[in-house]
Structure formats: structure tokens, C-alpha cells
Design goal:
Number of domains of chain B: 1
Structural class of chain B: alpha/beta
Number of strands of chain A: 3
Low-confidence stretches of chain A: none
Shape of chain A: elongated
CATH topology of chain A: Mth169, Chain: A
Chains: A alpha+beta (about 80), B alpha/beta (about 230), C alpha+beta (about 725)
CATH architecture of chain B: 3-Layer(aba) Sandwich
Oligomer: heterotrimer
Mean pLDDT of chain A: 91
Strand content of chain B: 25-35%
Number of domains of chain A: 1
CATH topology of chain B: Rossmann fold
Strand content of chain A: 25-35%
CATH superfamily of chain B: Class I glutamine amidotransferase (GATase) domain
Largest sheet of chain A: 3 strands, antiparallel
Structural class of chain A: alpha+beta
């Protein structure tokens, strides 16, 4: 099963990278960029046919490793 | 000889390299990244540091600065360009040098003195190293792992475009003496015309004996001679 | 909103304190005002439990330009140069989010230094973790070291000293103490005292978000079972923004625009605005609509209590606002005139054209509570261990066991993650007795060190605290510097418990005694209380940051043996004190008994004589004898140049382990060329120094005649072992 996971900073957390990328884009001429938040994207292949079990495993790996749950959120998407 | 040190927001080693240039009687001007034109100079230096905090990709945002176009022109006309550490990363992002600088293999920032073999002394930066080609310089970086396609590496080696390689105190080039995992222990490279040098180690930090060595001086005396 | 008892409690204010608030302002506070009191009256900002005792510390001498009370302390280092320095804790946030907690700790202390006009030239740090086997330790260690490096390296400031300690008392309460040192001219020092009425109050730096709201309250509370829920209050640092802020501030400081400047640290805009105005005996008025905000719909409460990083408050000379604005715009930073100074002596806040707070400044600072907490005298550790329990311990194995332990091994894994040589003036890196930084463009330098001895302090707080100050002093002497002053970070458990308060009072006593005798005053520092979880407190941990002056770097000394065939002398008497030693702790697992006593007369006399020998260029290397005693100290002198030693235990000394591992204080090991031996003997005799010539340097081995012979490679491998093994990687 193929799963894609996106990890992003929680809403109120400062994103120094996003801030600088936004300013650079504006300086490059893209005046209507209003906000940029930078995150991480993982593509995971898992040897598991049962979707419910795959979901449980995905949740676990996000909490234990992929996301720093103190300051990050994660979303899990199953690819067909 | 005249030089221009480019200062980006977040550059840290600009003062250090200016001190080194002036010590070796190279007349230097500091140039803010937002300027469009370079002052008249023979050598442009892109110093080390954390331009733009290394955000997005190291050297990436600095490579979009207003001053870059003039620097590219300067290089095309055969002017000398030296990129140290973050400066090397910026040269790569602008395309003036090929390849990519990835995260150190151990995924940690590493600051220590290393031994280097000066592989190519037939260029204006390294000519004085002919007399001493196993040297000691400090590295201090998180993304110094030079990587390129097999073909590109072959080309760099065959055309003698590798300037420095990490080695041990006897000049042996092998895994144990490679601090960051870079391909073929590459620590610095030249462009085809050999007027642009990018290097990860910091020559400007070892310019007097009290600083644990002065192998860095040799680079500056080579430049002055050129 | 009605202020209920629950809301008052959540703000960390007890009923007595609430009554005092009401009596000071003549009414009940509103929620915003309660929040402001909560921030200003908590332990971290008000020092209410410690003030009474901090005032007894010696804080002056002829070299002190600024003592405690400002953003940092300042000492005179001759020819118009001034050294600005301070150490501060960031313990609770680092436990919760180690990378960001440690990073923002570094950011905060750097701001304290450059807000006074000094370009930072070095940082040091003292970090303490739980037992290595504790499940949280590895991640905390990795995260903290990464965070310190991540922030300091990005700022381009070298980290040149520090210590890393492990002890189970820190299992649930790690310590991250960060020290920063900066350089300025004596006539270019900037203070935080506001002056002049109707002057513009200006906010510069990053925008304000919801970071760390009530962070100061978090530092003033123990971790309970709800530690997890405190997570969202951790701030995220942006070292790039701080680098810009540093350059912008220093650029503005080149001329005479700034009247006063204060960084926004704990309790953000609240503490900075109140402190600036209070010091100047003025009032301050702020229009909260002018605060640059990062998030939408921020409330006055959030704006005043936010601990978003990388922000400063300035009061500028009339007419210079545009000059300042241009500079901050050049560096891409927010610049906003948010208010003005007044003569009302009140803090007045407006939002959406309404007055939302109006408080007399005196109630928030001068009249903040000061407690005379009850305390109990410490029960000092006294248990003895009979000699027969260790007299047959193998020396070779014992030495190796100590060197392979986390507290005594080589710490390269840690400090090679910090850039030690940026700025081109690092003369001695970590690993020696003190780091040394050259004053840019001159041939003089400053020696910097940070030390602690929590196990000594737990065994006897007075003696332990005295010892830490002396060890700092010794570390500065050993590199050839004149010790000038200290900054202290006092880390303790809950001061509302009599036992803990007793430890604190006794620690202050010990520090005072040593500082007074050695003419080594305290010029800055902070106190971190409530380092305890579920009733288990950390050992009392005073961390001392010391600063010394090396007038001529030609006289600087290092600890590594230089040549084979040189004499080795021990300065100071070895009585063989093994309690609280590394030998007892690591080899015998015995943690009881008293720490070694300090004789301040010998401490001073020995140190000044060593300094004299260094200045007269009679010595080749110097190392002070501390953890592990003579054998470990010798091991540390052998490693860099791979030059060993052969020594003999003096004839009158029967007890081998006591001699080789004893941790008696005020001692040094010195290396002298044969040609200088007579002169050295004379200086020592003339100054009544007890000394013993115990042997000579030699090739390949560290040897104790007839008792021990260990190869230098084996010594080196032992010292490297622990970190390589813990992280399963080759360094």
C-alpha cells in the first residue's frame, strides 16, 4: 500500500523558513504571494493489505518519528 | 590587487575574510548583496556563514540576489571568484560551479581542523601550495558533502578541476579521512577556466601561528602573486 | 470577564499575593492586568524567593563597570575595552522541546549581551542530563546539542567552552545554562533605563505571535503530570532574524540615537516595557494596535505576554526615528513606534482606542513580593568507607573505568557540533582549562570558563559552592589569565520547601566566601527554581561562568605536555580526599561522604604563584587538578601531543589510591624544563607553596613507578569510548 504523509507546522508556530521564502518570492516579482508555510512530504510503501491496520501503523509512525507533535501536525493520505 | 567581499544577510565570515585579504595587502571593499554593480576588482569573494539562515536550501536564496548578475559577468570575463563554505554553496546554486552540496553523512554540523591535499596547484589560488601540498585547515559546516553524477566526477578528475581533497596527515586520501562523505573526498573544485574556486574549508581562519597554523596564508599569497 | 479564584490560581498567584495586588492598585485587576502581574511577580522575573540572599553577594571591585541589575554584567579589560557577559538558564523549555528550548536559550542570552552594545565574541554552555540509561536522556542530549549549535553557528559566534554532566537527579529536569560574552568600548555601553518624557518607544525585530504565552510562569512551576499539556508554550527560535537584529542594533549604536534599549525575553513586551520605564522612574504608554503581529486577531493579553523571540524595545532621541527606521528596514526587520514615555509612572495600554490597562509601575517591580522563605540547614553527607573496601582495586582498571565514564570522557562529540573558530580570534578551543578569545586586532585575550560540581554541593552546599568558584578561578589561572569576575546560574528545586531553600541559602554563603576572598565578584546571573518533578528535586547546581584577562597572549598557557624529559611538579598538598571523588563514584559506586574542604588561603596563594611562574615564562604546561585527581589530570595532559609521564608516589605517602585519585583542592600539575627547575623551586619556596616533584615526562606511557603502566593509545581510546559507544558511531 502506498501512503503519502505531509507534516506541517502547527498554526501558531513560527515558520522562519516560510517567512524568508515568501519574502524572496515577493522580491522576485511575485507580489501577490500572501503566505508561505514550509513542511515535509513523505512517500511510504507499506507491506500491509488491511487498510485499517495501515492507518494505525501510519498514525503511530507519525507520532513516534515523522512529526514532532509538539510543534507539528500531520495528514495521512492513501494512494490507490 | 583589488577584491570585493559580498555581504548577504546572514553572512558571518565576511569580516574574517576581509581581515585576511587586508593582511596580505589586497585592497578590499565590502559589497552589500542588494547592490547591482560590483566595484572595480580582480577578485570577488563569497564568504562563509548562514546566508538567509540556510533556509529552503543552503545558498539558494542568496543566489537570487541583485548582485549575482554582476558576479556572473565578472566570472565570464575571467575575473577571479572565491567561494568559501556558504560561498561555495552559493556558487553552486547560481550554476557557476557544478554539482550539489548535501548534508554531511553523519547528519551533524562538524567543526574541526582537517588535512587536505592540494590536488591542483596550477591555478591562481593555489600556486604557492606547490611547496607544501599537504595542509591543515578548519571546516565548520552541516552541508559539505559534495555530490555529482558519476560522469561529472569523472570529468572533474580527468580535467584536473578538483582543487582540494580531504586526506590524512600523510596525504593518504581514503574514507577515514573524509569528514562529511563527499564524493572522492572532494573539498574544493575549480571551473573549467580555473578562475572560479569553491571550497568548503576556511583558509581565512588559519592565517597566523597563534591560530593553530597558517596554511591558509598560502592561498592569499598565491592570489597576491597572480 | 470575571476574575475567579481558579483564574487567579492558573496565573500562579496565591491569595496573599492577590490581596496585595488589590491593595496596591486600589481595585481588582482585569484579566489583562492579572496576566501582567502574573508575569512580573513570578519567580523568574521578580526573584521573590532569592532577592534577599542575592543582595548579600559581593558584586563590586575596581574592575567592575556594571554589576547585577542590568541585562548583563560588565568588567573593564583595559585600554577602553569592556567585556559584557552573563549566564542564564532555559531549563524547563529544553526538557519539553530540547532543540528549540536550547536554541532559544542561546538566543536569549545573546540578546542580553548585544542589547548593551557589545558584539558577542563567544558563547559557552553548561548542560546537565539524567542518567544515560534513562529513556529520555539520549534524545534530550542530541536535541540540546543540536539546538545550541543550530542557533550559535547560524549567528556566527564561536562556542569555546562548556561542560556536559550526567546524573540521575536530572532525569526529569535537565539543565541548559547558556553563557554569552561580548566586547564593547567603555564609552559605548547602552543601558535599559528610560530617560526623557514624550520620547518614542519603538519595537524592532520579528513580529509577535502566540509563542510561549506564560513561559515565565512555566519556569516558575514544577512539572506535574500535566507536563505534556504545557507543550504549546515552547518558543521557536529564528537565528537568522537574530543575526539581522544584531547587525541592525550594532549599526544603530554607532551613533547617538539610542537613549535606552532592552531585549524582550521572558514575559516579552510586559517585562521589557515595565523595566525600562521603572528604572528611569517614568511612565510608559503603549498603543497595542501598533504592535506588528504575525497572527490574526491577537488580543492585548496575547500581545503583552507573548514570548516571541528576536525582538527589542528602544527609546530613541527625538528626531532620530527615521535614521533608525532606515537601518531596520535595510536589515528586513519590523520597526514600529508603539508608544511614548510619560511622567505618570504608570503602565497604560490602549487597544482599539480603549484604555485596557492602567497600573502603577511600582506595583509591578519595586513593590513586587520579596519573600523571606523558611529554610532548614542541610544535613551534610558524612558516611565513611573503610580503606579495606578499595585498597586492592587495580589502578589500571580503575583509571580506565573513570575515563570511560560519561562525566570524565572526551566531549568532542558535543563541541565539534559547535563552530569554535568563526570570527577568527579563537586561541584556545574547548578541551583545555579555559577557552581563550583574542580581542580583535590586539595581542590581548580573555579566558572564559564555566563550571559546576553538583555532587559536591549535594554533599555539602556551603563547601560545594565554595569549591565551584575556586575551580573556575583555577581554570582561569591555568591558562595564564588574571581572573576578573563571575556570572552565576543558580539551579535549584522548589524554594517553598525548607530543605531546598536551605540549600540555596548555604550555596549563596559558599559563593560569597570564595568570591570575597579571591576578589572575584558576581556581576550578573540568574536563578532557576522549581527544577523538580513529582517531589524529586535536582541536586543543588550553582553553575559559575568565569572571565579572566590575558594582557599579552604571548604568555598564554596550555595543558598539554610539550617535551619529553621535562619535570613534573604538583603544586599544593595531597591529603588524599576520596569522598565524592570520581574513583569512589565510578569505580566503587559510593556516593556518600563529604566533599573536599577548601582552604581559601592556599587556593589564592597557590594560584597567584602559578600565575607568576607562567608570566615569568618558566612553565611549559599547566593543568589544575580536579575531577579524578592526579592520575586523571595527568591522562588529560598526555593526550594531545602523545607525551606521557613517569611519576613516583612520594616516599612518605603510603596510601596509593588516596594519592592518585584524591580530589583535594587548590592543586595544579606543572611541567618545567630542567633548565628552569632552580628558578621555579625558588619562586615556590619564597611564597611558602607546598610542592612535590613527582617525576618526568616520557614517551609512550603514563607510568606510576612499580604500580601502573598504561599506553597512551589505550588512554586515548578509553577517553573516546563513551560517546562512540552511546551513539554507536565513530567520531
Amino acid at each position: 500500500m502506498k501512503i503519502s504523509i505531509t507534516v506541517t507546522l502547527k498554526e501558531d508556530v513560527l515558520d522562519p523558513q516560510g517567512k524568508v521564502v515568501k519574502q524572496t518570492l515577493i522580491n522576485m516579482g511575485y507580489q501577490n504571494i500572501e503566505n508561505v508555510r514550509q513542511g515535509k512530504h513523505f512517500e511510504i510503501e507499506i507491506n500491509e493489505k488491511d487498510k485499517k491496520r495501515a492507518e494505525i501503523i501510519s498514525q503511530e509512525i507519525c507520532k513516534k518519528l515523522l512529526a514532532n507533535t509538539i510543534i507539528e501536525n500531520y495528514t495521512i493520505n492513501f494512494k490507490e | 590587487m583589488k577584491s570585493a567581499v559580498i555581504v548577504f544577510p546572514g553572512s558571518n565570515c565576511d569580516r574574517d575574510v576581509a581581515v585576511a585579504l587586508e593582511k596580505f595587502q589586497i585592497k578590499n571593499k565590502m559589497v552589500w548583496h542588494d547592490e547591482v554593480n560590483l566595484p572595480k576588482c580582480d577578485l570577488v569573494v563569497l564568504p562563509g556563514g548562514f546566508s538567509y539562515g540556510d533556509y529552503l536550501r543552503t545558498g539558494c536564496i542568496a543566489s537570487k540576489s541583485k548582485i549575482i548578475e554582476s558576479i556572473v559577468e565578472h566570472g565570464k570575463k575571467g575575473g577571479l571568484i572565491l567561494g568559501i563554505c556558504n560561498g561555495f554553496q552559493i556558487l553552486i546554486e547560481t550554476g557557476l560551479l557544478p554539482g550539489v552540496l548535501l548534508r554531511n553523512k553523519k547528519l551533524k554540523f562538524l567543526s574541526r581542523n582537517v588535512f587536505l591535499k592540494v590536488v591542483n596547484t596550477n591555478n591562481k589560488f593555489c600556486s604557492n601550495y606547490k611547496k607544501k601540498d599537504i595542509i591543515k585547515l578548519p571546516i565548520a559546516h552541516n552541508e559539505g558533502n559534495y555530490f555529482a553524477s558519476t560522469d561529472l566526477i569523472k570529468k572533474l578528475e580527468n580535467e584536473n578541476l578538483v582543487a582540494f581533497k580531504y586526506c590524512d596527515k600523510d596525504g593518504k586520501i581514503e574514507n577515514d579521512s573524509n569528514p562529511n562523505g563527499s564524493s572522492n573526498n572532494i573539498a574544493g573544485i575549480l571551473n573549467e577556466k580555473k578562475n572560479i574556486l569553491g571550497m568548503m574549508p576556511h583558509p581565512e581562519r588559519l592565517i597566523e601561528p597563534i591560530l593553530s597554523g597558517d596554511d591558509g596564508s598560502i592561498l592569499f599569497t598565491s592570489l597576491l602573486k597572480s | 470577564m470575571k476574575i475567579t479564584t481558579e483564574i487567579i490560581n492558573k496565573h500562579g498567584i496565591n491569595s496573599e499575593e492577590y490581596k496585595k495586588i488589590v491593595s496596591l492598585i486600589g481595585r481588582d485587576p482585569n484579566l489583562l492586568e492579572l496576566g501582567i502581574f502574573s508575569a512580573m511577580w513570578n519567580e523568574h522575573c521578580s526573584y521573590k524567593s532569592s532577592k534577599k540572599y542575592l543582595r548579600t553577594l559581593p558584586t563590586k571591585n575596581s574592575k567592575v563597570i556594571q554589576g547585577p541589575g542590568e541585562n548583563a554584567g560588565i568588567v573593564d579589560i583595559e585600554d577602553n575595552d569592556a567585556l559584557v557577559f552573563k549566564i542564564e538558564s532555559h531549563n524547563h523549555p529544553s526538557f519539553i522541546e530540547p532543540y528549540q528550548g536550547a536554541a532559544t536559550g542561546v538566543g536569549g542570552i545573546l540578546r542580553d549581551v548585544f542589547t548593551m552594545g557589545a558584539r558577542p565574541i563567544a558563547t559557552l554552555n553548561s548542560i546537565h542530563f539524567g542518567a544515560p540509561s534513562h529513556p529520555k536522556t539520549k534524545n534530550l542530549l542530541s536535541g540540546v546539542v543540536s539546538g545550541i549549535g543550530g542557533y550559535g553557528n547560524c549567528m556566527g559566534i564561536p562556542t569555546i567552552g562548556g561542560e556536559v554532566k550526567f546524573d540521575s537527579s536530572y532525569n526529569e529536569n535537565i539543565l541548559v545554562n547558556a553563557m554569552a560574552v561580548g566586547l564593547t568600548k567603555k564609552n559605548k555601553i547602552f543601558f535599559s533605563k528610560a530617560e526623557g518624557i514624550n520620547k518614542s518607544v519603538i519595537y524592532v525585530g520579528s513580529k509577535t505571535g502566540r509563542d510561549g504565552i506564560h513561559g515565565a510562569s512555566m519556569a516558575s512551576a514544577e512539572f506535574g503530570d500535566d507536563a505534556e499539556q504545557k507543550k504549546p508554550t515552547v518558543q521557536v527560535g529564528d537565528p537568522f532574524a537574530e543575526k539581522l537584529l544584531l547587525e541592525a542594533c550594532l549599526e544603530l549604536m554607532n551613533d547617538n540615537s539610542i537613549i535606552s534599549i532592552q531585549d524582550m525575553g521572558a514575559a516579552g513586551l510586559t517585562s521589557s516595557s515595565i523595566e525600562m520605564a521603572s528604572k528611569g522612574n517614568l511612565g510608559i504608554e503603549i498603543d497595542l494596535n501598533k504592535i506588528p503581529c504575525r497572527e490574526k486577531n491577537m488580543t492585548p493579553y496575547e500581545m503583552m505576554l507573548s514570548e516571541s523571540q528576536e525582538r527589542m524595545l528602544l527609546i530613541i532621541n527625538s528626531g532620530k526615528e527615521n535614521v533608525a527606521k532606515k537601518i531596520f528596514n535595510k536589515w528586513g526587520l519590523d520597526f514600529s513606534i508603539i508608544g511614548k514615555t510619560t511622567n505618570t509612572k504608570n503602565l497604560v495600554l490602549y487597544f482599539d482606542k480603549n484604555k485596557v490597562a492602567d497600573l502603577p509601575l511600582s506595583s509591578l517591580s519595586k513593590n513586587a513580593p520579596m519573600y523571606d522563605r523558611k529554610f532548614k540547614k542541610s544535613i551534610n553527607l558524612k558516611k565513611k568507607l573503610p580503606h579495606d573496601k578499595f585498597q586492592n582495586r587495580d589502578l589500571h582498571e580503575s583509571l580506565k573505568k573513570i575515563l570511560m565514564s560519561p562525566n570524565n570522557c572526551e566531549k568532542n562529540w558535543v563541541w565539534e557540533q559547535y563552530d569554535q573558530t568563526v570570527m577568527g580570534d579563537t586561541i584556545q578551543k574547548p578541551g583545555g582549562n579555559s577557552g581563550v578569545i583574542r580581542i580583535h586586532g590586539k595581542n590581548k585575550g580573555v579566558a572564559l570558563t564555566v563550571d559546576s560540581s553538583a555532587h559536591y554541593c549535594l554533599a555539602n552546599p556551603v563547601v560545594g559552592a565554595k569549591q565551584v568558584v575556586c575551580e573556575t578561578w583555577r581554570n582561569l589561572i591555568a591558562v595564564g589569565s588574571n581572573p576578573l569576575a563571575i556570572t552565576n546560574c543558580l539551579n535549584f528545586g522548589n524554594p517553598e520547601k525548607e530543605k531546598i531553600m536551605g540549600q540555596f541559602v548555604e550555596t549563596i554563603d559558599g559563593i560569597s566566601q570564595a568570591c570575597t576572598y579571591l576578589d572575584f565578584p558576581v556581576v550578573s546571573g540568574n536563578v532557576s527554581f522549581y527544577n523538580e518533578t513529582k517531589n524529586k528535586a535536582i541536586s543543588p547546581t550553582p553553575t559559575i561562568g568565569g572571565v579572566g584577562l590575558i594582557k599579552n597572549l604571548d604568555n598564554m598557557m596550555t595543558k598539554d605536555f610539550k617535551e619529553i624529559g621535562n619535570n613534573i611538579i604538583i603544586i599544593g598538598k595531597t591529603l588524599g580526599h576520596l569522598y565524592q571523588s570520581e574513583f569512589f563514584k565510578e569505580v566503587l559506586n559510593f556516593n556518600d561522604g563529604p566533599p573536599p574542604e577548601i582552604n581559601l588561603f592556599n587556593e589564592k596563594n597557590n594560584g597567584l604563584s602559578v600565575l607568576k611562574l607562567i608570566t615569568e615564562k618558566l612553565l611549559k604546561s599547566v593543568h589544575d587538578i580536579s575531577s579524578g585527581g592526579i592520575l586523571v589530570t595527568l591522562s588529560e595532559m598526555c593526550t594531545k601531543n602523545m607525551i606521557g609521564a613517569k611519576i613516583k608516589i612520594p616516599k612518605n605517602y603510603m596510601k596509593i589510591h588516596e594519592y592518585l585519585f584524591g580530589e583535594d583542592q587548590s592543586r595544579y600539575i606543572i611541567e618545567i624544563e630542567e633548565k628552569n627547575i632552580k628558578k621555579v623551586n625558588k619562586v615556590l619556596k619564597d611564597n611558602n607553596i607546598f610542592f612535590e616533584n613527582i617525576g618526568k615526562t616520557q614517551k609512550n606511557y603514563l607510568e606510576v613507578e612499580n604500580k601502573l603502566k598504561i599506553g597512551l593509545n589505550e588512554l586515548n581510546e578509553s577517553r573516546k569510548f563513551w560517546f562512540e559507544n552511546y551513539f554507536n558511531e565513530e567520531i
